Amino acid sequence: MPETTWNHALEHVSRTDVGLRRANNQDAMAVMVATDETSWSQRGHVFLVADGMGAHAAGELASKLAADGIPHTYSKLRDQAPPDAIRRAIVETNSLIHGRGKADAEFHGMGTTCSVLLILPQGALVAHVGDSRVYRLRGERIEQLTFDHSLVWEMMAAGQVSGNERDHVHIPKNIITRSLGPNPDVKVDLEGPFSLEVGDRFLLCSDGLSGQVTDEEIGAILRVLPLDEATEVLIDLANLRGGPDNITVVAVHVTGEQLTRAAGVPFTIPSEKPTTRVHPALWGVAGVCLFAALVLGLMEKTMPAILALAGGVVAAAMGIIQRLGDRRVRGYVVAGGQLGQGPHRAYDAKADEAVVAGLAAMADQLRDAAQREPWNVDWRQFDALEKSAAAAAEKGQFDEALADHGRAIRLMMGQLRQQRDRAAEA
């Protein structure tokens, strides 16, 4: 029996949290893992994060429609290559959300971001609208595969401002330039396919995470900790920094060579340019020959006129044949081509002194808050982790220090959540 590639060699974890300042969760997520070899080879595995926008119920509905509709529609379009199918699924879902918004005043203008990761035999393909993000961690580098459709990113792309988006505090961060729902049409970014290697980790997240946790911190935490721990620590860190928005993360880990060496049928990839063009010289030759035939005919030079006419007809026929062939393949390039311009950012994912110091400071703030409040905390385990982290940092063992600080934060936040939940039930 050959090794399967659809239910092994992949680990994934998904979590969502309402945050500290929102009454409801307008984020949504979806995971659709292939259930058999045929589904794997045709559709792959689907991971999605959506961040809704609008009034109380509108944002929730928009993101839910995206999380439900896009994977469902994509899975049905098996006669289309994955890039075409996921683009069409997003476009059709946009129409659905837009229609619901127009039909009910309560949902008017509602919208949602949408970031989709497809793990396919051909590699990782990303489809994206809005400012939610998809990252890939490989080794000690984390790359942002998506372009933020936000005002600040658009201004940076246009050369109106320079540097990093965090440098421009005067530009509102919550203004996005593209989303599903508000307009009848939507432009979908496709990125990839990106190669897969054993050990690769992907992270999809809403801006509730990326707005509070730096890319370097995301990379280091995702690299050092197991997926289940890393996702919890990332959410805890965003909440400790104010938790102003809903926080959703979906993490994917390539654990086996089956995914990296899978031999699927190559798909064609949409392109903005035709793959074949009519060579301009053909039209030039045709024009010259036909003009010469006319002149020679007027001069009553019959045989040269016939030869010139024949040359013009042949050249024109070749141009028409190329043009028709161009229509048959227009908009596609053969497999191996690359969609989009990603990765759009790359950062160091090492657990260096600065990243460790940031987590240590958060752990200290958490300790101070717990001591001021009547919280029932297992100080013995928390203190042991913090002591171990400090010792590792002293030795320059920053991976170990980060892991221990992260686990201490996760331990404390987990105990606080349990106490909050028990108090709510009482």
CATH class of the largest domain: Alpha Beta
Low-confidence regions: 1-5, 270-278, 324-335
- What would the average pLDDT be, to the nearest integer? 85
Helix percent band: 40-55%
CATH evolutionary superfamily of the largest domain: PPM-type phosphatase domain
Overall 3D shape: elongated
Tell me the span between the first and last alpha carbons: 54 Å
Number of strands: 14
Order of SSEs: EEHEHHEEEEEHEEHHHEHEHHEEHHH
Total tally of structural domains: 3
What structural class is derived from the secondary structure elements? alpha+beta
The Cα radius of gyration reads 28 Å
Instruction: Give the biggest sheet.
Output: 6 strands, antiparallel
Corresponding CATH architecture of the largest domain: 4-Layer Sandwich
CATH topological fold name of the largest domain: Phosphatase 2c, domain 1
Strand order in the sheet with the most strands:
1-11-10-7-8-14
Per DSSP, the total helix count is 13
Q: Strand percentage, roughly? A: 15-25%
